[in-house]
């Protein structure tokens, strides 16, 4: 079971990277999603370019850029900070796109009805559009979170000691058949870790559907 | 201007790295999509053993990070005497990934074919095989096209992970250039531009197809 404990040692770091990046994404994506559906075409275009650029470049490139490319005076990113910032920025772009899709899925009539009721623009946005959009996007957000969990493994390439890094070093120390075990364990562990997210998301979704249609 | 001259100097090497990336992506897509079609059909097969096996292949391919599958092929299997060259290991790992992701998209596409199409086929006396290959599959694949294009872009970006097993693809090339003169910022920026120049237009084309398909639906 040595291989298994070796992999488990990386679990806290994997969870830290995933949730820190997710937190950055969940919050940071809000203004970007608003920008993506802005009236002003220039704002819309700039936000669109930002999102497509961030998503068009592989995560490993962002991590290496932050880790090796950025040096301002004596400041350099340590591996964990580079991983969190990199994964965080990437999640902002992906989640903004998910939010935008959700806002677009809210029927136009809802906005018009709010107008007709004389609700202010911010009330319309926060009290009418956002709650309905959230119901549409919650499954996509859950899917993205499991994707982010797997993407956090890329941090091992800039020497962050998360699960894949740990399994890698265990395998290196055990050049026998036993050396394959950590890879099998770590693969299974990622799948197992995604299960509760999928379960909670399905329950949340079912509950919200009831809330709408009953 | 020094950035530009640096970039011009890097370009020939970067181009050879990019061609390796494109080769790996191309192979994994060409092998992965047909496999994905097979898996997509098998996960709904009557035979329990086949169904379970296909489901396991799909769930591992989607659920485990690509990097883990890559390491499994490159560092893991040699311990059983099955050794691959790094580029072969990268192709196999990404093929598994592509097959797993595309199987779900193709299955959804096949299931979206209207029930009446199946019924019409059997009313016309088509055999099960003909009904599938001539009626259901062409329509199912059509609606799966934007999703499959998305997977193709994902595979191209995924080739960057082959850096980790020292395949001389774009990322590895960039790293090598960077470690010569420590121009990491320039060289990784250029690498990012290379990826973006291919991924971004590909994404826009995908969105265009999605919109067109939605219009006809």
TrEMBL record, chain A:
Q: Give me any GO biological process, just one.
A: amino acid transport
Keywords of this entry: Amino-acid transport, Cell membrane, Membrane, Transmembrane, Transmembrane helix, Transport
Among InterPro entries, the record links this protein to: AA_ABC_transptr_permease_3TM, ArtM/GltK/GlnP/TcyL/YhdX-like, MetI-like, MetI-like_sf
The answer to keyword Cell cycle applying to this record is no
Q: According to its record, how does it sit in the membrane?
A: Multi-pass membrane protein
Tagged with keyword Hydrolase: no
Compartments, record wording: Cell membrane
Put simply, this protein is called: ABC transmembrane type-1 domain-containing protein
Task: Identify the species of origin.
Answer: Psychromicrobium lacuslunae
UniProtKB/TrEMBL annotation, chain B:
Q: Does the keyword Cell membrane apply?
A: yes
The residue ranges crossing the membrane are 20-41, 53-74, 80-101, 144-165, 185-209
Looking at the Swiss-Prot or TrEMBL record, what is one Pfam family this protein matches? BPD_transp_1
Q: Which CDD domains match?
A: TM_PBP2 (cd06261)
Chain ranges of the ABC transmembrane type-1 domain: 18-206
Q: Which PROSITE patterns match?
A: ABC_TM1 (PS50928)
Q: How does it sit in the membrane?
A: Multi-pass membrane protein
Tell me which UniProt keywords the record has, alphabetically: Amino-acid transport, Cell membrane, Membrane, Transmembrane, Transmembrane helix, Transport
InterPro entries annotated for this entry?
A: AA_ABC_transptr_permease_3TM (IPR010065), ArtM/GltK/GlnP/TcyL/YhdX-like (IPR043429), MetI-like (IPR000515), MetI-like_sf (IPR035906)
One GO BP: amino acid transport
Q: Quote the subcellular location field of this record.
A: Cell membrane
User: Record's GO cellular component, any one?
Assistant: ATP-binding cassette (ABC) transporter complex
Q: Which GO MF terms are attached to this record?
A: transmembrane transporter activity
Q: Gene3D superfamilies, per this entry?
A: MetI-like
Coiled coil: which residue ranges? none
Main localization, broad class: membrane
* PANTHER family hit by this protein: L-CYSTINE TRANSPORT SYSTEM PERMEASE PROTEIN TCYL, MEMBRANE COMPONENT OF AMINO ACID ABC TRANSPORTER
Q: Which family does it belong to?
A: Belongs to the binding-protein-dependent transport system permease family.
The protein here is known as Amino acid ABC transporter permease
From what organism does this protein derive?
Answer: Psychromicrobium lacuslunae
